[in-house]
Protein 1
Amino acid sequence: MTDKGRFISLEGSEGAGKSTAMNAIASVLDDWGIDFIKTREPGGEANAERIRELLLHSEHLDDNTELLLMFAARNEHLVKTIRPALEKGIWVVSDRFVDASFAYQGFGRNIAWSTIEYLEDWVVADTRPDLTVYLDVDPLTGLKRAARRSAKDRIEKESIHFFNNIRKGYWQRLEQNPQRIKRVDANQDIQQVTTDVMNVLNTYREQLQS
């Protein structure tokens, strides 16, 4: 019988350096000889990618609609990408997962935490990450980096107050899930962030591979 794969998620707000961290995680898993896929949210599956376009580029999207679209995309992602891979023994590394909904729609949009918990229980069920690496960046620093990278999408046009609240949301998730979520200081230079991300994985290698 094939051992079930492990699920690693990567979290952080705009400009935190998730692409660089994703490459660092992939490098570690390659060194371990692990068969894995890289994916993202919103997205990671054909229909979920279409929903991503709505989420990032629609005008005047209601906050509740945003939350429901996130979970609709997440359901497609889980059913068609994440769970099939895990069942085959393939590890999954996702750029964002459900913690992002608590941060962005919970603290950012001020939607009740209990509403998101209900959707998490319904859609995500027991498919929870085994390890989450949270890239904690000062919002001003992150937004400056993001602005150099590409034109702003709908989310990146939000106020600094919105992104400060997102950070508070991630901190609360970290406080609630200290065994799963590991913080990396993403205000540092890329080389140090890369090293710290690799160190997190190597520290929890035994736990992940048990």
Protein 2
Amino acid sequence: MSTQQAITKGVIAVAGSGTRFLPATKSLPKEMLPIIDKPIVHYVVEEMVNAGITDIVMVTRSDKKPLEDYFDQNALLEEELRQANKLQDLEKVEKIHQMANFIYIRQKPTSKASYGNGIPVLNASSIVGDEPFVFAYGDDLVKMDCPEASFTQQLVENYEKNHAVVIGCQEVPENETHLYGMIKLQEGSSKFVEEIIEKPDPGTAPSRLAAFGRFVLTPEICQILQELEPGKGGELWLTDAIEAYIQHGKSVVAQPVQGGRWLTTGDPLHFLEALLEYAREREEYWEGFKQYFLKLI
């Protein structure tokens, strides 16, 4: 594999159950919950596209058809909008299926594990082939201060500079370190990763630097996942594969969010926080909401 290869492929994991949002997610994929007027996963796709990603692989499951339909063309709706002269709405709808080349594959377990965030990477490996690629969780957002900016672009630029696996990261409170893969940087380094531990026991994390749902991965990671034994909870963890990659003497680089903030939407409280963060930049809604909220308190 040439380290000079341009990154044009992105893989998004969207096969989760979203049980924290039941009953809403009984028939609606969690990644399709709206942040104002676009579903969560739309923002993830936009971030990738703004970084030059042209082919996006969605690792789904059988009940994710609404998500697949969303990124497909809806000729009937487009014609209705055209006939009604709702041209601004028409433009918004047409842009969705034009953003990228979308590929859908069903997530399937391996012979060693049925669950884990390493499985969608392994499932997509035959499509990404021998190329480096961006991997993202479909419910993790990175809201940039400048709307035109893209955190994926920061990851790609990091890879182009260091030719190493790149992990998106952000500091979290001490009482949340047991929820994420936690990063220890090499002594004296501000970027090279010495160790990454998946969901360490409370009080044992090597730092407060958490890996979240953005990575640049290489085919070597997929090869390691093929041989890797299940880790914590009997699941196949991407962080365990990255740790094995480090132990093989390979370089892994941390990329903190610059000029923005990671926002998880994995539970209702954090979803509401993300919703408000995006609402703040929408002048047509924010002033009215502030007045309403002031009445409530």
